[in-house]
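## retry 2 of 3
previous attempt timed out at serialization; input unchanged, resubmitting
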Amino acid sequence: MHQKEIVQISKWWTDLGLSKELKRHFDVYGTLEELTLFTEAINKWDVAAVEQLPEYMKICFIALYDITNEIADKIHQKHGWNPIGSLRKTWASLCNAFLVEAKWFASGHSPKLDEYLENAVVSSVVLAHTFFLVGQRITTETEDLVDNIQSIISSPATILRLWDDLGSAMDEGQDGRDGSYVDYYVKEHKGCSMKDAREKVVSMISEAWKRLNKECLSPNPFPAAFAKASLNIARLVPLLYA
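## retry succeeded, writing output
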C-alpha cells in the first residue's frame, strides 16, 4: 500500500472519525427509536429518510453519505469502476451491528463473549474501503470476499475493536452505558478483576496479530497489495486510538 494512501485513510479515519462518531451516537445520544430510524436510512442510503431525525443525526448521516460517495468517485476516476454498492453495505453492516448493541443495552441483555465479538468485528468498514482504494476490481468473487469477512479482514477488525474496548466507557463520556469486551468478560467470569479482563484483551489482540501474520504469509485469495494494506491498517490502530 502506498504511503499516500495510508495517510489518506488515516486522515479520513481520525479527522472525520465517522465510525467512532457513529459509535458515540449509538452509545450516548440516540434513543432506540431514533437509532432504528437512522439505521434504516443507512440501509436505504436515502438522505430523505433522515428528515424526521434530530439535527445531529442528520449531520452525521450527510457527512457519512458525502465522504463515502466522494471516496467511491475517486476510486471510479482512478480505477474505472465504482465500489459504492459495497461501501454502502459496509456502513449498513456497521450500523446494524451498533443497533444490536443498543438493543442489548436497552433490554439489559449481556451477550456471551463469542456473540459480542462476532457482532463487533463488523467494525471492518475501513478494511473494505482499503480493498478498493488499493485498486481491486469489483467482481462477484471480490465482493464476496469482502462481504463474507475473511480472516485477513476479521483479524485487523478484531484488533481495531478490542483496542477501542480497552478505553473505558467513563473516559469516552459514556457513563458506563456502552458494553465492551472488558465489561462482559468481568460479568461472565465471576471474581475476575478489570485488570485481569484488560490483560485478557491484550492477549486476544496478540492472538489476532498472529492470525493476521499467518494469513498474510500463507496463500490466500486476496491480492498481495490488500494483504499489505491489512497489515498497515492493523499497525495504525494504536495510533488511531491513542
